[in-house]
Amino acid sequence: MRWLILSDVHSNLEALQTVVKAAEGQYDRVVCLGDLVGYGPDPNSVVEWARARASYCIRGNHDKAMWDPEVVAGFNYAARIAAEWTREQLTEDNLQYLRELPRGPLETGGFTIAHSALSDEDKYIVCEADVLEELRYFDTGLVFYGHTHSQTGHMTDECGRLLSLSPQLPRGRSRLALQLLPGERYLINPGAVGQPRNRDTRAAFCVYDDMRQDVEFWRAPYDVAATQSRMEACGLPSALVQRLSFGR
After folding, report:
1. CA distances (Å), origin 187, targets 17, 117, 145, 175
2. How far from each other are the two terminal CA atoms of the chain, in whole angstroms?
3. Which residues does 48 contact at the CB level (< 8 Å), separation at least 6?
4. Cβ burial, residue 136 (10 Å; 0-12/13-18/19+)
5. Full set of structural domains in the chain with CATH
6. Which of 69, 117, 190, 230 has the fewest CB atoms within 10 Å, counting from its CB?
7. Of 241, 162, 180, which Cα lies nearest the Cα of 216?
8. In whole angstroms, what is the distance from residue 137 CA to residue 146 CA?
9. Is residue 207 left, alpha or beta, with left meaning phi > 0 and alpha meaning psi from -120 to 50?
10. What span, in angstroms and rounded, lies between the C-alpha atoms of 205 and 187?
11. 139: which residues sit within 8 A by CB, 6+ positions away?
């Protein structure tokens, strides 16, 4: 089985459509690691796509913000304005879908998915200490997580030594494969579809092949200007519009 692993779509339909087209024929099922909404201009279209296509989807903090005011209260100004706007746009059916999304981590039968840390769904995994802490919480050999918007990964070998993975996909190169080795444990972030970071504007995602036991890191350039125009037309904060130009 080949799995398309998506995270942090953030209502960016242009980026999502580009990713799906780029990965066409490369996957059998779709997994979403949360944050379908927030920031971007097309929340209903993105949620409807996930409802129709995702075999597994868990909630992210921006999804939870659609029905939990305490989450919104913790956002910065731009994120809060975007969350409030998004809530007003969502249909009742789509809002109900977000409300019913399971909290991670979730075992899918061979690997584990989480929006952020396995120990805390709102915690960022940003350093080696965070990774070492998370190793206590999962039994499967492979975990996919999101939240940081950074395409990266970590692994431990049979001796427990920790190695960081930093896939380098220069302009013109769309994917890079990582062979998974028996006895080693992997914590992999596919990066963000809808608000890429790592100072790379291209949409990021992964494809996992559970037969070949490899993970491909992908980057796909999309029409950033089109998304920015839609955001401006919706009156979303200019800071959110501009950051898409810099991938941060």
Report:
1. 26, 10, 7, 18
2. 33
3. 94
4. exposed
5. 2-243 (3.60.21.10)
6. 69
7. 180
8. 16
9. beta
10. 14
11. none
- List the structure tokens of 207: 């494809």
* Alpha-carbon torsion, ordered 123, 50, 7, 194, to 10 deg: -110
Q: Residue-wise pLDDT tens for the chain (248 aa)?
A: 999 999 999 999 999 999 999 999 999 999 999 999 999 999 999 999 999 999 999 999 999 999 999 999 999 999 999 999 999 999 999 999 999 999 989 988 789 999 998 888 888 887 778 887 777 777 788 999 999 999 998 888 776 778 888 787 777 668 888 999 988 889 999 999 999 988 899 999 999 999 999 999 999 999 999 999 999 999 999 999 999 999 88
Best CA proximity match to 26, nearest among 241, 188, 218: 218
Amino acid 149 reads H
